[in-house]
């Protein structure tokens, strides 16, 4: 499987085939895994996402972080810089609107904005990953742009979240793709 479009279609179908019970169990397992991992559990400012299209649902993890007083931020499409993300504070009472992809995000309010450099972790959604830490997203490059430079100390540490069915033997990569240093699935905690 080398065609990126074909890979995206097949893996998205695989994760959409997961039952509600399987999705719920995976989401709870990820939250438990983070709770038992000191460097993840101790973070005070984290970015997460709201699940879309069968992605691993981080809501139990969001709830867990909120219960600890951790500040949670969500990605918002940058209104003036196409292809880039901003991060806005997310609380239980935050009003959400659908972005152009139909994904809920906080309404843009500069008072809720946190510069990316002030985040400690960015939990990233993905379509597929491989055992070398390569990540394939939806194809827009939003997270690759956001994560570029993190390994040189120019941003927060990325942590991928995925279902086990999203792993491939190898993913075709391009020069702009940003590999992950860490990824969590229900069955494993990967570190590279």
UniProtKB/TrEMBL annotation:
Specify which residues bind ATP according to the UniProt entry for this protein.
4-8, 135-143
Q: Which key words are in the record?
A: ATP-binding, Ligase, Magnesium, Metal-binding, Nucleotide-binding
Cofactor annotation = Mg(2+)
BP GO annotations: folic acid-containing compound biosynthetic process; tetrahydrofolate interconversion
Q: Recall the taxonomic lineage recorded for the source organism.
A: Bacteria, Pseudomonadati, Pseudomonadota, Gammaproteobacteria, Aeromonadales
- EC numbers listed for it are 6.3.3.2
> In its keyword annotation, does this UniProt entry include ATP-binding?
yes
What Gene Ontology terms describe what this protein does at the molecular function level? 5-formyltetrahydrofolate cyclo-ligase activity; ATP binding; metal ion binding
Domain of life, per lineage: Bacteria
Task: List ligand-binding residues for substrate.
Answer: 50, 55
InterPro entries in the cross-refs: FTHF_cligase, FTHF_cligase-like_sf, NagB/RpiA_transferase-like
Q: What class of enzyme is it?
A: ligase
Family membership: Belongs to the 5-formyltetrahydrofolate cyclo-ligase family.
Known catalysed reaction(s)? Answer: (6S)-5-formyl-5,6,7,8-tetrahydrofolate + ATP = (6R)-5,10-methenyltetrahydrofolate + ADP + phosphate
Q: What is this protein called?
A: 5-formyltetrahydrofolate cyclo-ligase
């Amino acid at each position: 499987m080398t065609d990126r479009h074909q890979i995206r279609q097949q893996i998205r179908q695989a994760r959409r085939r997961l039952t509600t019970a399987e999705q719920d169990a995976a989401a709870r397992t990820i939250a438990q895994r983070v709770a038992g991992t000191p460097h993840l559990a101790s973070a005070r400012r984290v970015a997460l996402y709201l699940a879309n299209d069968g992605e691993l649902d981080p809501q139990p993890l969001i709830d867990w972080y909120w219960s600890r007083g951790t500040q949670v931020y969500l990605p918002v499409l940058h209104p003036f810089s196409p292809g880039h993300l901003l991060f806005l504070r997310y609380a239980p009472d935050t009003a959400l609107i659908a972005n152009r992809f139909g994904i809920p995000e906080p309404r843009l309010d500069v008072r809720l904005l946190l510069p990316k450099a002030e985040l400690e972790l960015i939990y990233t959604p993905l379509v597929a990953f491989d055992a070398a830490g390569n990540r394939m997203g939806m194809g827009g490059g939003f997270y690759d742009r956001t994560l570029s430079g993190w390994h040189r100390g120019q941003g927060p540490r990325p942590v991928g979240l995925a279902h086990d069915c999203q792993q491939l033997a190898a993913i075709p990569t391009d020069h702009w793709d940003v590999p992950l240093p860490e990824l969590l699935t229900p069955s494993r905690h990967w570190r590279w």
